[in-house]
Amino acid sequence: MEQESQQTASTENDMSDPALADLDCAVKVELDTDNSSSEVGHLSSVSQALFHNEEADEEEDEDGSDDDSGTDNFNIEKSGTQLQRCERSGGGSLPDTFQTSHLLFYERFKVYQDYMLGDCKPSEVKTFSADYLEKVLEPCDWLALWTTDVFDVLVEVKDLDLKDLKACVRLVLPLQCDTRGCELTEDAMKSLLEATQHKVPLQQLQVVYEESGDFDQTALALEHLRFFYKHIWRQWDEEDEDDDFDYFVRCVEPRLRLYYDVLEDRVPAGLVIEYQSLLEKCSQCFQQFSVLRSTLSTDSDSELDNVSMVEGLKLCDQLETFKRKLHIIENPLLRYVLAYKGNTRQQCVQSRGPRESGMKVVHVVTASCSSIQLQSLLSARLMPLCASEDAEIQFHREPVSAVDSCHQGDVVIVLPGIYCVNSSIFIPDSITMEGFGFPDEVVIEKKNKGDSFVESTGADVRLSNIKFIQHDAIEGILCVRQGTLNMENCVLQCETTGVIVRTSARLTMNMCDLYGSKGAGVEIYPGSVCSLVGNGIHHCKDGILIKDFADELDVMPSITMENNVVHNNEGYGVVLVKPNNAEQHSGSVEKSEDPAANKQEKMTDLISTLSMSSSSSSSSSVTSTTTTPTSSSSSAGPQPESADNNSTGGDMASAGRKWQLNHQLSRNKEMSCSRAVEDLMDHQIFVSIQGNQFRRNGMGDFGTFFY
User: Where is the sequence biased in composition, kind Polar residues (predicted)?
Assistant: First the structure.
């Protein structure tokens, strides 16, 4: 009853949502207030189900029961099914089923949040799901296909065992089935059902299509259950030692969003592959851990058990590592900041090296040009470049084909015009690509979806005088994966992330204008070298994001920032991402100094707890400081006045590995905080930081992001 009241309360809060208009439209119901007296009772129940909040003060449910189930969208006078038919391919004797797999994000979201899961804990998921199914499933006498990897067979549901999320079924005779790679007889199927006591998982049942509409709710409820256990639930969720949290908020919502982001091509293909690989590794690790745990004995001191406990600790640490990486990818705020290190698929474009003949080629990109332009091009660029006899000029209509034709040492000259490209530009060789004119006159615009726009892996690549416009992309506008990229006098109109400098790559960016990024304008990874001089970085989520979350083998980035103007960004001008190590912050809970005691405590936990998590709760202080806009052309850099800026201690009670982003803004916007600048100046990642201007950044000029 407590669970029902929680779900009912959530339902009542949701009924005032404007989404009711969509529901009313989808169901296509007209409530005629002038109906005859025989229909009054029915309309009253419908009104109460759909508009409970509005009538709560006027009517009371006489029997005290709650008939609102979340999928009760068709609890009205039956006028036929509202669901589509799913026709079986290849014919066969089996009947069609309901088409329920194409539900939208918000449809699943509302059912899980308001009706099926509510605010349950991981250990309560099964109980809440059973309560939900009890309200909406037809109790018996309906046909379904029992679907497995090996066969599909027609059965009739005679009863429900909701405690175990199973249905009691009987075989429909004569036998109607489709098999895959095997032969199945009636006797074999009866034997199989007897072995399972005629009980099959509800997830494996698909309701047979009927036009009456009587089984719409049942079909939808089974779809929600099937989708949840296939795409949302993880077998290790129930064993989280920190069980006291809202499972929907912590796990269901981010995983559901990730599923639809992948479905709608909003996640890079490489990150999807990485996530699936992590899921598989985590599942294997959990299985090994569970098997090992089942063999341990709490009262045994044998050497074999001690070895098993040590091995169990290693598996436990691996499992926690995998779970943490999965949480990062599932969180849309941290997905690109911490997890994604590039598309793992091997690019078909590889370095071609120099031509065997030693000839250098100048590639001219233009759809058409005037005689004046051609004369100017000859005198200004072609004659100097082609002075030697071993030079050649080739003409292209668009820049992608020009870059694809390049060998080491070639030059690409792009004449004024707007060039719309449909594929990414990969630069694997050391080439020069320049616009013949001002950046606003030489525009390369990417229209269609893709993982990236421009990717550079050449040892010495040079870009200049070009404007890049990004549309509907998944990754950043420009990515330096390896090698060196020198960019000067370019304009970057972003849509997702801006310029990305991967580990071991080098970027020199001078006199460029970058804006519009929904992430960071410039993302700098550990082990990279980045020089930013005289650039404008503005109207992005964050200006410059520096990833100092180095692993033991990572090298800190090396950054030069001089005379840049970073302004009008939604978040920080410069934000430093760091791991939330308790020992680095004041207010940390002191851990045991005895390694042997810690090891013994872990071994005890390994046997006595289900989750075997070796992580311990700690309080941490998360510090983030801001400065007012500062302008300085002095070689010594800005010298702001000192002011006190005390960090706030964030005492987090929950012990589950939560990613914390705690910002503290300066109370006095008119004063500058020397602490932020001093921290940056003292940080080893900065070779030089001087002469920069920061203006009107929403959360401040400098910040630290702890995770």
Answer: 1-13, 71-84
User: Other CB atoms closer than 10 Å to residue 513's CB: what's the count?
Assistant: 17
Query: How many whole angstroms separate alpha carbon 486 and alpha carbon 430?
Result: 11
Distance (Å, whole) CA 377 – CA 383: 8
Phi-psi region of 393 (alpha: psi -120 to 50; beta: other; left: phi over 0): beta
Q: State the Cα–Cα distance between residues 191 and 202, nearest whole angstrom.
A: 20
Condensed to tens digits (0 to 9), the pLDDT of residues 3-40 reads: 444 444 444 444 444 443 343 443 333 434 344 444 43
Q: Tell me if 473 sits within 8 A of 424, measured CB to CB.
A: no
Quick check: 73 and 27 in contact, CB under 8 A? yes
CB distance 542 to 571 below 8 Å? yes
Strand order in the sheet with 360-365: 391-396, 360-365, 411-414, 432-435, 461-464, 484-488, 506-510, 529-533, 558-562, 686-690
- Phi-psi domain of 265 (left: phi exceeds 0; alpha: psi -120 through 50; beta: other): left
Q: Are 184 and 177 in contact (CB under 8 A)?
A: yes
Residue-wise pLDDT tens digits, 334-381: 776 665 555 444 445 678 888 888 888 999 999 888 888 888 888 888
| Cα-Cα-Cα-Cα dihedral sign, residues 297, 299, 304, 310 | positive
pLDDT for residue 397: 92
Using CA atoms, how far apart are residues 644 and 640, in angstroms rounded to an integer? 12
pTM of the model: 0.57
- Which alpha helices (DSSP H) does 366-420 contain, by range? 371-377, 383-385, 399-404
618 φ/ψ sector (left φ>0, alpha ψ -120 to 50, else beta): beta
Rg (CA), the chain: 32
Quick one: residue 587, left, alpha or beta (phi over 0 = left, psi -120 to 50 = alpha)? left
Q: Is 668 exposed, middle or buried (0-12, 13-18, 19+ CB in 10 A)?
A: exposed
